[in-house]
């Protein structure tokens, strides 16, 4: 078993660090929040006083932070200069592709191996150890990160070179945002046309309009499997996080010269939804505004 540094013990990182401790690793955990540190201690991690202290002597350094600026500053202030040369750096945060590539290049310049490894799956999957990891980086770095990621997830997929994990995450979540809105619109149209919503679900879920947003995350209460719609759109994937990912996707599209009219419109609709005070509402709750 290895010594692992885990920085960022929030909603996602808390469960992920707990699973590494459960697997028998010596997890040195750091977060700015005392509450998060106390929970990590209960979960079998060793709370430490700084990110630099967590990183000292670590074989793997996992970060799960809010955004690119946090990752860049933790790497500059605590990881570079403290990480042993043989450490593998694994950033699981969802951040912009450009920052992910910049961080990997900076790590490489210091002789450190690094991967971007954002996740699909929410807080429940983080706790259950059933996340999907999409990983960007050289093959040897992927091979070294893989055993640690496998202890926190059900699928670990090598997406390509540095930044490719974030690119896959952006494209996937842009698709998710657009299909959720399209699914909500289809239910509203069916309703206006006088269809019973359960009947429409029964037809569409086995027809060409089927998608994950329809059959795994149905935005209509009482229809399909149990989803946040059945809990008044609480819990699940917050609209503010969907908006964050859509904005990152739009930024990446602009940098890459990709045309994404539906992604652009989905971003505008989630911007309006969040501006109306629904940032913490599950993203499927957008059906109420359509
Ligand atoms: P969170 O806000 O609950 O956790 C982030 C943690 O980072 C907080 O505890 C905060 O105190 C800590 N932090 C911030 N700056 C720090 C620093 N300099 N040093 C140490 N700790 C610091 O967020 P989360 O929901 O756990 O999400 C983390 C990442 O995972 C985000 O990039 C998010 O987009 C992504 N993500 C979230 C979900 C989800 O459902 N919540 C799903 C997939 C991906």
TrEMBL record:
Pathway: Amino-acid degradation; L-valine degradation
GO MF annotations, alphabetized: 3-hydroxyisobutyrate dehydrogenase activity; NAD binding; NADP binding
EC number: 1.1.1.31
Residues annotated as the enzyme's active site: 169
InterPro entries for the chain: 3-OH-isobutyrate_DH-rel_CS (IPR002204), 6-PGluconate_DH-like_C_sf (IPR008927), 6PGD_dom2 (IPR013328), 6PGDH_NADP-bd (IPR006115), HIBADH (IPR011548), HIBADH-like_NADP-bd (IPR029154), HIBADH-related (IPR015815), NAD(P)-bd_dom_sf (IPR036291)
UniProt keyword list: Branched-chain amino acid catabolism, NAD, Oxidoreductase
BP-aspect Gene Ontology terms: branched-chain amino acid catabolic process
Domain of life where this protein originates: Bacteria
PROSITE patterns hit by this protein: 3_HYDROXYISOBUT_DH (PS00895)
Record bears the keyword Oxidoreductase: yes
Ranges of residues in domain 6-phosphogluconate dehydrogenase NADP-binding: 3-160
Catalytic activity: 3-hydroxy-2-methylpropanoate + NAD(+) = 2-methyl-3-oxopropanoate + NADH + H(+)
Enzyme class: oxidoreductase
All residue ranges annotated as the 3-hydroxyisobutyrate dehydrogenase-like NAD-binding domain in the record: 163-289
Similarity annotation: Belongs to the HIBADH-related family.
Annotated NCBIfam families: HIBADH (TIGR01692)
Protein name as catalogued: 3-hydroxyisobutyrate dehydrogenase
Lineage: Bacteria, Pseudomonadati, Pseudomonadota, Alphaproteobacteria, Sphingomonadales
């Amino acid at each position: 078993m290895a010594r692992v540094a885990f920085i960022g013990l929030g909603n996602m990182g808390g469960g992920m660090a707990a699973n590494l401790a459960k697997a028998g690793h010596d997890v040195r955990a750091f977060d700015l929040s005392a509450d998060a540190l106390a929970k990590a201690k209960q979960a079998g991690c060793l709370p430490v006083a700084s990110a630099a202290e967590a990183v000292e002597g670590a074989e793997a350094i996992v970060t799960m932070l809010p955004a690119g600026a946090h990752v860049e500053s933790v790497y500059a202030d605590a990881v570079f200069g403290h990480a042993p040369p043989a450490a593998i750096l694994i950033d699981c945060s969802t951040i912009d592709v450009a920052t992910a590539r910049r961080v990997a290049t900076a790590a490489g310049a210091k002789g450190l191996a690094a991967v971007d490894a954002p996740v699909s799956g929410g807080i429940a999957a983080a706790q259950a150890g059933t996340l999907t990891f999409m990983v960007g980086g050289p093959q040897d770095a992927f091979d070294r990160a893989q055993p640690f990621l496998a202890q926190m997830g059900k699928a670990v997929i090598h997406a390509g070179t540095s930044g490719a994990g974030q690119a896959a995450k952006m494209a996937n979540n842009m698709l998710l945002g657009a299909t959720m809105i399209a699914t909500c619109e289809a239910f509203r149209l069916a309703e206006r046309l006088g269809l019973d919503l359960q009947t429409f679900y029964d037809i569409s879920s086995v027809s060409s309009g089927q998608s994950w947003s329809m059959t795994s995350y149905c935005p209509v209460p009482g229809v399909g499997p149990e989803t946040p719609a059945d809990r008044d759109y609480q819990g699940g994937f917050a609209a503010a996080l969907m908006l964050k990912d859509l904005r990152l996707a739009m930024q990446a599209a602009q940098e890459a010269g990709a045309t994404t009219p539906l992604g652009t419109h989905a971003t505008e609709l989630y911007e309006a939804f969040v501006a109306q005070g629904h940032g913490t509402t599950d993203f499927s709750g957008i059906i109420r505004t359509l």
